[in-house]
Amino acid sequence: MGMTKQTNQVELVEKGSILTPKGFKATGIHAGLKRKRKDLGAIICEVPASVAAVYTLNQIQAAPLKVTQESIAVEQKIQALVVNSANANACTGERGLQDAYTMRHASAKQFGLPDHLVAVTSTGVIGEYLPIDKVTAGISQLEPSDLDGAAIEFNEAILTTDTTTKQTCFQTVVDGKTVSVGGVAKGSGMIHPNMATMLSFVTTDAVIESSHLQHALSSITNQTFNRITVDGDTSTNDMVVVMASGLAENQPLTPTHPDWAAFYETLKQACESLSKQIARDGEGATKLIEVQVSGALNDEEAGKVAKQIVGSDLVKSAVFGKDANWGRIICAIGYSGCTIDPENIDISIGNTATLKNSQPIVFSEEQATAYMTDEETILIQVNLHVAEGFGKAWGCDLTYDYVRINAGYRT
Amino acid sequence: MGMTKQTNQVELVEKGSILTPKGFKATGIHAGLKRKRKDLGAIICEVPASVAAVYTLNQIQAAPLKVTQESIAVEQKIQALVVNSANANACTGERGLQDAYTMRHASAKQFGLPDHLVAVTSTGVIGEYLPIDKVTAGISQLEPSDLDGAAIEFNEAILTTDTTTKQTCFQTVVDGKTVSVGGVAKGSGMIHPNMATMLSFVTTDAVIESSHLQHALSSITNQTFNRITVDGDTSTNDMVVVMASGLAENQPLTPTHPDWAAFYETLKQACESLSKQIARDGEGATKLIEVQVSGALNDEEAGKVAKQIVGSDLVKSAVFGKDANWGRIICAIGYSGCTIDPENIDISIGNTATLKNSQPIVFSEEQATAYMTDEETILIQVNLHVAEGFGKAWGCDLTYDYVRINAGYRT
């Protein structure tokens, strides 16, 4: 996009990654937690990075989340983030907590940092102790690099039942300087607690204080990561971390900065892209479902209704069955607990209007089935005709493979 | 049980039905809404019966629910209840409402009753107009009887995707008189809105005023029908109706009557039995899951935690996979929103303790798998060690057949 005057444009960076923002290196290796695939990765920043993070709302939180929160509390900065997959280090009590400290200390030593500049996180099976010797041996082999391949290696190292890596990168201009936001995620089942699930790591080179970054991330998370559902479960290990290196040399971003909106939108686009990639790769999924609700009492209720629809097993099964089943959609609306006028709801599936003012309207089943067969993303639009609230949510269809994966995973 | 002094005993009546309590007749016929199977039924009482009812909390309510509520409002009594399956008469607007009135009026005429002593209800596909000519023609053929076969005919007439009929009967003694409570239900998917789902009709010969009966039913529903889940969806047509003929000739039951507890328990046993039968016949289910939560802050939170566990797709999939996956159970506990101590939770599956004070304990996977393979009912017990609250919930496993049934139902 270059250093033009169009500061408010947000552009997708093709093949961009967590290494596109200035100041970051990454790596991913096989440390022996999985049989063959990569299972240990790290992101390092040249300088202590401003950090923001959001954590699972599950009252059962895994040990590494506690240790990471302690790290961040010291000076709201981190310089390294180390992740293992295959084992969540959750429900592992005092020993699990000690293992997380050991993992953090080994990483700090490897990278020559104080402990509190290191965040640790784990994803995988719950209730088994971390094979800490393998983890520390692996950490001693971590050699982050800024080559393109390093981002991919990191992406691979954090996967569990995911079928693809998930990454994104967007750029904008702040104070005439290019600011990049790169991100990576793992999810697959959103959420299968046994895999201790949704993780996302975002890098940026923006100059921004932790408190403002946290404000933006919390707000954006509510509109993106918190709007996806695969099975409605919330894991013990969910975490999103944003690191800001500050090497873009813009004036510090605050909500009153003239380019705040551009930065906010760039971060939001990155998070929305990762969210959609996670939903699309839901366990066993064949389709991404996007629900858009307009006319709600407010944006929050719109999001709640959208999420209720996209989380309904019946709607999800119908999408798998390529069935334009608006009856299940209106039912989900009816039990969302939000303000509705039961006599005045519109529903369309793709370009096919199926319900208008709560009255079924004749539509071509053939056309609707063709849409649901051909498209990879199924769009469900609802107008509640109550007020002006708008919101989106994303999910996936419920398939035989979801049952197969989750009936068979642990054994 | 006879007229003994053990007034507080509640006994199951083998092969008892809605016709066991004195004063009731029933029938079920094929009226042409389904291709071959029975699709129209009625329960009639010799006298106007005290009535209590609970309805779906879905904001979208089907037309017959509105008409039934109007009937009951007049004098809190009904004498006839007419049900059709195959079509829910939901989301059908003004025409649907007129159809429900027509259905009520035709029934009143057939049985020689004023309109307001007739309740009507429908279950089946949403958003299609009731074939009202077939329904009224069918009503003119209804000839209720008190023979045993008549209860079965009624039971069959209200089914949709259910694989079995569901009925129960319990008795107790009130004032030295035998009081019976009989019940019938349909469910299968709890709930698949497109089938407009959970219906239950209960008869009793107890002498009891509507207001006291309503009080008992509302309280019991919270501990029984509201504690089952197949897929978490709540239909537009859910309804439970209790009719009390008063022919047992006991002194009127009120909460201060010495045998109130016995009657309450009898009604509760009947409702719990029907609830479990509905959960066990969940779409595609191979197992009934019963979750018992003790040590919660109060009974309400215990029930909420139990329902969160039994409603988790991951727990349901694990049961199908015969996997003693306590990690998914503790996750569900963690996001229940109830008061817990994350460090002090016990979980057992059947006789196998899997977690004690939130620490995984070594158990025989073989023994656990054998239990989950051999038993038809899988019992999950949780102790939260917070206070004394206790509650139960019921559900079923999530299977390939659930997906098959719901991906393919409408088309």
Write a structural description.
The structure is a homodimer of 411-residue chains. Chain A is an alpha+beta fold. The first copy, chain A, folds into two domains: 11-277, L-amino peptidase D-ALA esterase/amidase (4-Layer Sandwich), CATH 3.60.70.12; 288-408, Roll (Ubiquitin-like (UB roll)), CATH 3.10.20. Helix content of chain A is 32%, strand content 27%. Chain A has helices at 63-75, 93-111, 132-139, 148-157, 210-223, 260-280, 299-310, 313-320, 326-334, 365-374, 400-408; strands spanning 11-12, 24-29, 40-55, 77-87, 118-125, 166-174, 177-186, 199-204, 228-229, 239-244, 288-296, 346-349, 352-356, 359-360, 377-383, 389-396. In chain A, strands 1, 2, 3, 4, 5, 6, 7, 8 and 10 form a nine-stranded mixed β-sheet that branches. The interface between A and B is large, with 64 and 64 residues. Chains A, B: It is found in: Cytoplasm. Chains A, B: The record marks 123-124 as: Involved in the stabilization of negative charge on the oxyanion by the formation of the oxyanion hole. Chains A, B: It catalyses: N(2)-acetyl-L-ornithine + L-glutamate = N-acetyl-L-glutamate + L-ornithine; L-glutamate + acetyl-CoA = N-acetyl-L-glutamate + CoA + H(+). Chains A, B: The active site is at 197 (nucleophile).
